[in-house]
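[Discussion] Sanity-checking designs against the backbone

I'm trying to build intuition for which residues belong where. Below is a structure token string of 208 positions. I'd appreciate it if someone posts a full sequence so I can compare it with mine line by line.
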């Protein structure tokens, strides 16, 4: 998007525009309150992020900023794909009779669209979406509700997720097993506040 839109902005390179958007994005998502509101309206959050980036650059082009943000949202959603092996892993876990729940933050419309697009509902006994439930991870109520829906004690449950803060730490605090998906292969950060029960780099490892 920066490569495309920089052509419409005088004296601004794609690299400069991207740096400004990155700076604005990092500021926006660094605050817990903004994070909670923003993840439930990503379209509005991205509009705010790009508008602030344009402000950093001294650009008085609100319409272009709006178009850039909205085009990014459309393209971002279009390019969403399951992790390699994700569908096959769900199919096999489901075949084995393992009760599964899907827990996700964000707005209902965005998340339901992806669930329907990839036909995921068939695999899950319970689906909890922040925008429908009222609170999201890492709130304890999310995990307690899901355990109740599965008729499962914490010690019997695995929480598989890619966020140490939102997925793994609250699960461990509740007595669940926390399986961290380190898809980027970066390893556990030195500043991590928790140690996962297990770390995987690909979802099919759950089947081993």
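Best answer:
Here's mine. Compare freely.
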């Amino acid at each position: 998007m920066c490569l495309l839109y920089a052509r419409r902005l005088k004296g601004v390179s794609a690299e400069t525009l991207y740096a400004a958007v990155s700076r604005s994005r990092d500021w926006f998502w660094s605050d817990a309150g903004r994070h909670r509101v923003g993840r439930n309206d990503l379209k509005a959050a991205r509009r705010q992020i790009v508008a602030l980036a344009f402000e950093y650059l001294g650009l008085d082009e609100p319409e272009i900023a709006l178009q850039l943000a909205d085009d990014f949202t459309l393209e971002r959603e279009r390019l969403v794909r399951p992790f390699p092996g994700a569908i096959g892993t769900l199919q096999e876990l489901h075949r084995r009779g393992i009760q599964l729940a899907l827990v996700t933050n964000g707005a209902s419309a965005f998340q339901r669209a992806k669930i329907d697009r990839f036909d995921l509902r068939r695999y899950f006994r319970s689906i909890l979406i922040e925008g429908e439930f009222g609170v999201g991870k890492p709130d304890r109520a999310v995990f307690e509700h899901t355990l109740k829906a599965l008729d499962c004690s914490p010690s019997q449950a695995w929480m598989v997720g890619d966020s140490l803060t939102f997925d793994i730490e609250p699960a461990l605090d509740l007595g669940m097993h926390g399986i961290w998906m380190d898809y980027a292969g970066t390893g556990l950060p030195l500043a991590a506040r928790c140690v996962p029960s297990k770390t995987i780099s690909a979802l099919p490892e759950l089947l081993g």
